[in-house]
Write a structure and sequence with these properties.
globular, eight-stranded mixed sheet, 284 residues
């Protein structure tokens, strides 16, 4: 078990020879599938010697723990190298890039739909959609007229820098102001993986409970912005807005908080202004 993200280490593909090889054949350019062959080397371990076990003592698991830690460090090290490549590319092209993270059902896709319809006439936008399965969200984004790339992670619980590096190949990066990445719904694993983005933006809906920043501190600590979504439901749920904001600032004192409803549009204007300023194209 990988202590970083909870995945089995075998869920992460590590290519020691090339930092520019797809880790997964799960990336779809909305309607097109690309197949990549992977060579897997299987080792047949045969033991011809006898093991004597002293059942009166405890087994020392420290070597196994060291192996897990080494694998984890290798995964994160490789990811960080590729994230640096992505970050340099986005800087060169002048693309403001955001990594949207949340638990499932917080309203990321609805928020993206409304945001894109409001800003796509002013800003040149593109979206990378991350999900374990289906292209449901990508089809919703495509309906806004904005270019979208679907990445399906299969058993993986987060996007990584390698996926983003290849996902951007579908876009005309010289004619792009804003890249929005919708990560897999998960408040744990995506916190540890840098994609090369400018900022992480965490969505928290009022249906989830105000204590989430304390339960998942790394995600909120690593995020520049918290969007408190579904505020239109506040009359119908037990949720303390001020306490939630206090908890978020306890783990990330400088976090920017917008209270919004992606359904009704309430509070979204401030979010739009923040996005536009990040691209260097302020809006009224």
């Amino acid at each position: 078990m990988c202590t970083t993200c909870g995945c089995s280490p075998s869920d992460h593909h590590i290519d020691h020879s090339d930092d520019h090889v797809h880790p997964h054949d799960q990336s779809h350019d909305h309607g097109h599938k690309h197949n990549h062959d992977h060579d897997h080397h299987h080792h047949d371990h045969k033991h011809g010697h006898k093991h004597d076990h002293d059942h009166s003592s405890h087994h020392d698991t420290r070597p196994a723990q060291r192996t897990i830690i080494a694998i984890e460090e290798e995964i994160l090290g490789k990811n960080n190298r590729l994230a640096g490549f992505n970050r340099a590319l986005f800087k060169e092209k002048g693309i403001f890039t955001l990594n949207l993270v949340s638990s499932p059902g917080s309203g990321k896709t609805t928020l993206l739909e409304r945001t894109l319809r409001a800003l796509s006439a002013t800003l040149r936008c593109a979206v990378i959609e991350g999900d374990q399965q289906t292209d449901n969200d990508a089809r919703r984004i495509a309906a806004t007229g904005v270019p979208v790339k679907q990445i399906n992670t299969g058993a993986g619980c987060h996007l990584d820098a390698h996926m983003i590096m290849h996902g951007t190949e579908s876009f005309d990066l010289d004619n792009l102001d804003l890249l929005l990445i919708e990560n897999v719904g998960n408040l744990v694993c995506p916190a540890a993986f840098d994609l090369g983005e400018h900022h992480k933006v965490v969505l928290l809906s009022v249906t989830e409970g105000e204590d989430k920043p304390l339960k998942y501190p790394q995600m909120f600590h690593n995020s520049t912005v918290m969007l408190l979504n579904k505020t239109d439901l506040l009359p119908y749920v037990s949720f303390d807005v001020e306490k939630c904001k206090e908890y978020a600032r306890r783990v990330s004192p400088e976090i920017i908080i917008f209270e919004v409803s992606a359904t009704t549009g309430a509070g979204m204007a401030e979010w739009y202004r923040w996005l536009a300023e990040g691209t260097g194209t302020p809006i009224a």
